[in-house]
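Would you mind giving me a polypeptide sequence along with per-residue structure tokens?
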Amino acid sequence: MKNITLIVLFFLILGCTSKKITEREFGTIFGEYIQREFVESFDEKQSVSQREKILMDVLSKHKIDFEMFKEYMRKKHEDKYKKIFLE
């Protein structure tokens, strides 16, 4: 019985920690990403993996899950998604 209680408690905590991304947060994070990409790619174009690494660094600073942010971009900001993950 204790194991079931612990598992339920774990999923409740996990569910409470994942928050939805707002447009304001997206704008802030994407702005920081653009600044970092500009500085790091001043003399050469970044690869997809390099751009992902930059984005992961910015997201970790804001404590936002990479996959959740990536999915949000894919759904709501397709042009920006393509710029980072497909070009």
Notes: Helices lie at 2-17, 23-40, 48-62, 66-76, 78-85. The radius of gyration is 16 Å. Residues 45 and 71 are 24 Å apart (CA to CA). The mean pLDDT is 85.
